[in-house]
């Protein structure tokens, strides 16, 4: 963990708030049945279950979305908020579950394609009192951008380019 880096960032951003602004760009392109997804120097893949036309060789986009929520719970709680709020944490585990009806994805009448019944379970191991750990988790619930994006509807500016070929 990089507690000093977090504290230094906080100090710097208080003095120069414009330096705290960030924009994440993620791109995806087709490669066989998979999508190759890239963000800066990192890349990963997504695929669909065979029932939806994929080869089931990589996590589905839905699994990646749920994984982003679970991953944010683990690293943002442990590596950023715990040191910032002075709550020692020895372990964090997160599990996210959600339901989808594939019939809706295939356009069957009367069946919604939405994710439903999202459940997030977070397990925090800490030597501190339960009250302090709950305060830490509450801070996460109020600050995690992935959680907040799922919780609060927002507009997505969608632009489509059509190319012949």
Give the secondary structure arrangement, pairings included.
Blueprint: H1 3-15, E1 27-31, E2 34-39, E3 42-46, H2 61-84, E4 91-99, H3 102-105, E5 116-125, H4 130-143, H5 145-151
Antiparallel strand pairs: 1-2, 2-3, 4-5
Task: Please describe what this structure looks like.
By secondary structure, this protein is of the alpha+beta class. It folds into 2 domains: 27-59, no CATH class; 60-154, K homology (KH) domain (GMP Synthetase, Chain A, domain 3). It is built from 5 helices and 5 strands, in the order αβββαβαβαα. The protein has helices at residues 3-15, 61-84, 102-105, 130-143, 145-151; strands at residues 27-31, 34-39, 42-46, 91-99, 116-125. The strands form 2 sheets. A 3-stranded antiparallel sheet has the order 1-2-3, with no helix packed on it. It has a two-stranded antiparallel sheet with strand order 4-5. Strand 2 (34-39) and strand 3 form a beta hairpin. Helix 2 (61-84) crosses helix 4 (130-143). The longest helix is centred in the middle third of the chain and has 24 residues, at 61-84. The chain is globular, with a radius of gyration of 19 Å. The mean pLDDT is 96.
């Amino acid at each position: 963990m990089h507690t000093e880096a977090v504290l230094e960032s906080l100090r710097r951003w208080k003095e120069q708030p414009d330096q705290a602004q960030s924009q994440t760009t993620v791109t995806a392109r087709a490669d066989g049945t998979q999508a190759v997804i890239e963000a800066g120097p990192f890349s990963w893949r997504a695929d669909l279950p065979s029932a939806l036309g994929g080869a089931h060789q990589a996590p589905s986009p839905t699994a990646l979305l749920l994984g982003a929520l679970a991953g944010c719970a683990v690293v943002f709680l442990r590596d950023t908020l715990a040191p910032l709020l002075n709550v020692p944490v020895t372990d964090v585990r997160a599990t996210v579950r959600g339901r989808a009806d594939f019939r809706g994805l295939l356009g069957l009448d009367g069946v919604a394609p939405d994710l439903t019944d999202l459940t997030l379970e977070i397990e925090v191991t800490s030597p501190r009192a339960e009250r302090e750990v709950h305060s830490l988790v509450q801070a996460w619930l109020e600050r995690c951008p992935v959680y907040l994006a799922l919780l609060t509807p927002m507009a997505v500016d969608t632009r489509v380019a059509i190319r012949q070929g």
